[in-house]
Amino acid sequence: MHLTHKIALRPTPKQADYFARACGTARKVWNWALDEWSKQYAGGGKPNAMALKKQFNAIKYELYPWLKDIHRDAHAQPFTHLDKAWSQFFAEIKAGKPAHEPRFKKKGRCHDSFYVANDKFSLEGQAIRLPKIGTVAMTETLRFEGRILGATVSRTADRWFVAVQVEVSDEQAMLRRTGHGTVGVDLGIKSAAILSNGESIQAPRPLKAALRRLKIRSRRLSRQLEAAKLAVGLAPGARPPRGTRLPVSNNRRKSAAKLARLHARIANLRADFTHQLTTRLCRENQAVVIEDLNVRGMLANDRLARAISDVGFGMFRQQMNYKAQRYGMRLVVADRWYPSSRLCSVCGWKYEALTLRERTWACADCGTHHDRDHNAARNLERLATATALPVASPAGNGGAAAGRVPAAVGKVTPVNHECGQQGASGQEERCEHLCSPF
Ligand SMILES: [Zn+2]
After folding, report:
1. Rounded to the nearest whole angstrom, what is the distance from the C-alpha of residue 400 to the centroid of ligand 1?
2. Residue 373: active-site member
3. What is the pLDDT of residues 148-206, one digit of tens each?
4. How far is residue 371 CA from its own chain's centroid?
5. CA 293/CA 248 separation, integer angstroms
6. What is the 401 CA–ligand 1 centroid distance (Å)?
7. Among 60-69, 116-125, 210-219, 390-399, which range has the highest average pLDDT?
8. Strand 193-195 to strand 200-201: parallel, antiparallel, or no bridges (unpaired)?
9. Which candidate, 31, 115, 307, 389, has a CA 20 to 30 Å from the CA of 17?
10. Catalytic residue among 83, 112, 291, 418
């Protein structure tokens, strides 16, 4: 199993300066490669990473003379990354998922990072020896034992980190579970998560406070940006033409730095919170059911976007995936068409007209009062047990109007995939469980 340990670094000013230049190099090379790739592709060619790298190597010192001072891994890796990004893009298109093409990286805008291959660095206690700059102090020692695969140095606001990838044996990666429960988790907007046992988990106060401050500070920065546009004669809200340099006031620079630090703090708080939640869920349960939310698709929807990115759905899902493996926990991911909010978890009646605003509702069939999120979590939990409520796939849903979905529906597709110790069971096996609840 591949595990990554991200460790904060304590570079000297000289080392930090090298890091910044190496990141700049990685970004420039990425942009060069992406530009060249697109040109060749548009010209009917079939670009590939190897050929592009060769092409780049022939002209690189002419193009960027300062490249000699930067270790070659920083400018070799972007080609591999670009290759991967394109493959992923085409795979997603093929699977009918929303995808975006690899994009140009902007200075200060994107995640600044560069790569170091495993034969170019070494670790000794709380220190890492990197090419060109020597030993850099780390805030902790590497947590995992195993074959080291590589490292990525990155910056978040004004702090530097190294993420070391390690291949560890499955036995070493396995962690001990403390419980054997089964739980459904509904990731909410009001509370961070609601469990099927009724427990609601709130985002920590500091995170909430930081998010409130984020609103205020982003507004302040965008006001200053509008003022700068006005100063060069641009209409408010207009997009400055490419290459325009807006005047940068001291206040705007300060606001931008503050905002970047706040973003970094929020990212940290959110990561901590998500780690605690996912560890707890995986440690205490033998099976956890979560929803397959189409995060990208939802982020395109403005109204939901903020709330969703606040809870960090994508991060949650990713952590659940690898922790399920480490704890030997069965992770069940409900199909994104599974109407977990709309089914009555007591009798199975389906409330077709449920809107996002309705936080509570009463079942028209059995009269049970439901809290929206708790009911959803209970329906999710059922997917891991033999009592799941039947539901037709969206394609086969036409015949069944409002009301109870007939138990004899042939096509049942609530479970998307499972992972963890018990692995994925076959589709037929699942149908047998899901078609005969009551
Ligand atoms: Zn009911």
Report:
1. 17
2. yes
3. 999 999 988 788 999 999 999 888 888 899 999 999 998 866 678 889 999 999 888 88
4. 28
5. 40
6. 16
7. 116-125
8. antiparallel
9. 31
10. 291
145: tokens are 């034992």
- Tell me what the pLDDT averaged over the chain comes to: 80
Residue 402 DSSP code: S
Question: Residue 350 Cα, ligand 1 centroid: separation in angstroms?
Answer: 8
* 196 C-alpha to ligand 1 centroid (Å): 16
Q: Has residue 242 got a pLDDT over 90? A: no
- Which residue is catalytic, options 73, 83, 112, 373? 373
List the single range of 2-16, 203-217, 409-423 with lowest mean pLDDT: 409-423
Cα(107) to centroid(ligand 1), Å: 55
Residues 6+ apart with CB under 8 A from 401: 352
Alpha-carbon distances of 266 from 78, 125, 156, 212, 314, rounded to whole Å: 28, 29, 11, 11, 15
The DSSP code sequence of 223-281 is HHHHHHHHHTTPPTTPPPPTT------HHHHHHHHHHHHHHHHHHHHHHHHHHHHHHHH
Question: Is 140 known to be catalytic?
Answer: no
Q: Are strands 181-187 and 285-291 parallel, antiparallel or unpaired?
A: parallel
Q: What is the Cα 53 distance to its own chain's centre?
A: 29
Q: Averaged over 354-374, what is the pLDDT?
A: 90
Q: Where in 157-305 does DSSP place strands (E)? A: 159-167, 181-187, 193-195, 200-201, 285-291
Tokens of 140: 């902790």
Which member of 73, 83, 112, 186 is catalytic?
Answer: 186
Instruction: Using the mean position of ligand 1's atoms as its centre, give its distance from the Cα of residue 304 in Å.
Output: 28
Residue 328: left (phi > 0), alpha (psi -120 to 50), or beta?
left
**Number of neighbouring beta carbons within 10 Å of residue 316:** 24
CA of 184 to the centre of ligand 1 (A): 19
Identify the residue with better confidence: 358 or 29.
Answer: 29
pLDDT in tens, 28-61: 999 999 999 999 989 998 888 889 999 999 999 9
Residue 401's CB is within 10 A of a number of other CB atoms, namely 8
The answer to whether 295 touches 311, Cβ cutoff 8 Å, is no
186 has catalytic annotation: yes
